Structures
1.
Amino acid sequence: MIAARHLAVACAALALSGCITPVEYGKIRHADYVADPRCTAQPGAAVDGAALPLFFATSRLPDCRTDDIRLLRHRGDRMRYGRFAAPVEVKVGRDKALRTPMAFQDSADWWRALQAETDRKQGRVLLYIHGYRETFETTSKDAAQIQRMTGFDGPVIEYSWPSQGEILGYAVDETNMYHDVRNFRDFLKTLAERTWVKEIVIVSHSLGARLVVPAIAYVDRASATADSSNISNIILASPDIDRETFERDIAGDVLAPARVARGRRISVYVSLKDKALAASRALHGYPRLGSPYCFDPFEAADLQAKGLPARCYPVAISGMTVIDTTDVSRTSTGHSNFLRSAVACRDFVDVVADKKTRPERVTTHLAYVFRLLPDPAVPKDGDDAICNRVPTAEQP
């Protein structure tokens, strides 16, 4: 039984590594994908902000050869900006697929539109950075859900890097994520230095944490304002980042005492039932921040001897809160509880709104760690409605 379990983990790690499905250039020149003028937004070109209310910045290569412009899994030739709406299901041959209504926008026009939307609200911006195994359609769906679910009073931006959207593409995703570090940190620096941006709420999922954490540190060091305190509310959902590396680097950098004193905080959503992070741990050899797995068996034994669950968390860091969603985990992987579990969704909504407590949060033996427990008032099929996964007539 134990051997079979080890074999299953090894197989999962092999699949996650992506070594059996390397990305290929393809049979089409990348220049041909972007040859159509629609891939190069013209200054002053009209974009219907009412029909396309959400913002995106992307380093993905677009395909402008047909009427239906799409963003591919390949690295783009440059950064592009635009507007989008929630994806819709369309028929493609005999199958159905998601398609995201979108339009590119000249970068200067895009920043002006973002300012106009920000000025109309409270100066708050929400920036969403996706993780592994995502397409532009799936990340746009998640970004639109976050906007509906939270009712965020300000513009929502999706930053889309070239993930492969395939379960066997992890190694390629990891490579592309690291390749995109400069693009993302430069974008975040530009956003943080806009005087009209009063607060940036950053939401990252999975592998996206490895883009976000070093980028914030870079902006803190390089910002012309020498402040960057508008990067205040940082949410790491199921972060696929080395736990010990995070512990070592974060306290003296992103969560330095001076920044915490000015209001910066990090909320980390974790789950012991996260199978994606279990596979990542098997692949990388060390536990991930998003999983309370006890790497040290002696620590696990000590917890059990005290009558506590064998769940191990990062060390206490001022400004950091850990929310354990193990007991309310959803789906076969448990990797997106903040978008799938009713209890986790409600907690996430409050964190975005900077509320500190929820009735479902239960204290633990660690002051900075909370467990979420099931809500008996929520029916088994109530997750989708509470997480607002399906648009209503009032929320297209």
2.
Amino acid sequence: MFTKKNLLLISLLSVAFLASAQKVVEPANTDPEWSKPYPSFQIVGNLYYVGTYELASYLIVTHQGNILINTGLAASAPMIKANIEALGFKLADIRILLNTQAHYDHMGAMAAIKKSTGAKMMVDEGDSGAVADGGRSDYSKDGSVSLFAPVKVDQILHNGDTIKLGGMQLVMLHHPGHTKGSCSFLFDVKDAKRSYRVLIANMPTIVTDKRFSDIPAYPNIAKDYAYTLNAMKNLSFDIWLASHASQFELESKHKPGSGYNPSAFMDREAYDAELKDLQEQYFKKVNGN
């Protein structure tokens, strides 16, 4: 439901979107694995992987249209389309666009896909400004240029909001720190054998070399990281995935052509180990090491 605050914010974001329609400069020398092709496949039930070797994109298929989460780099748009079609689905059937963070490596092709499909862009409030201005307002950047094509925000999301489509219900979890509106998604899927609780996690990696106290554009960054790390430790799920394929060890868990195997992604131990490592990095950061 749209509140007066949300409608006002969306109106302001539309102005920001139009004002930011300027030169987009995606950083050069990106990791080649970010754009390396990877065959799409069925993860579990109606959830599919349609991203690249390293940048994860997820397709959730329903009888009322589909949901796409993340898009990778700008040049990855044709690859995502091809991956979706290889599964027997159509890009045009995407109705909702979501992201786990407003960085160019996950938002690069979002504007092109939105234009092609007419899908609604739904964004965590903390990242809504960065989505609308192409990342210029990201606290870790200098704001001189857009790093990805700005995307008009159609709906603002808050912690615990539910995205509904065709019987699917995705709960958005506000997990700030990496960006002001980084978020994860928790939802249930089914196959012929059972139901699975799935977490698409935005792992709270630290992206700045500066001390937290030296980031006036994000005064609550230390508190947000602490909140997110604690919140993520307490989540319950069967399967977990992430924004980057290497974070959940996609290459070792699924070999192209290996077939349907949801159990490969039921790996709580790896999730806890990843969070423990991030917690240690956070402690070093706040202690000035």
